[in-house]
Amino acid sequence: MSENFAIYRQQTERRLFAYNDLKAKLSHDISDLTASDRGASDPPEAATETDGIRRQIAETARELSRLDDALDAVRDDCYFAVIRMRYLEGVKDEDIAERVCCDVSTVRRNRKRILQRVAVRLYGAAAVARE
Hints:
The chain is an all-alpha fold. 79% of the residues lie in helices and 0% in strands. It contains 6 helices and no strands.
């Protein structure tokens, strides 16, 4: 396996593990913006804060959109549940194997295969494993 792919796989895993936290952060930031908009007659420094919240919302929404697009590309894979359970639900490989009635090695092999596809969607040709 190429060293580059290992790096992209790690970055992809980090981004997937953060998915639920990003969704929660987006919701929180939208609530903050709504509350800030209610006090629209606040001093100019409040406008700067509101602009910061808007930037955070845009950045987080963009990241979630990229992840959603990458996940949608592999959603039809028969082992997609492995990705969902591991990264979005925090289930351990052993428990996933039990739930989908297969060996832990099968879970890991298919997770790695799907992660490679997700990494290519996120990072392009740089994420392609070369031997």
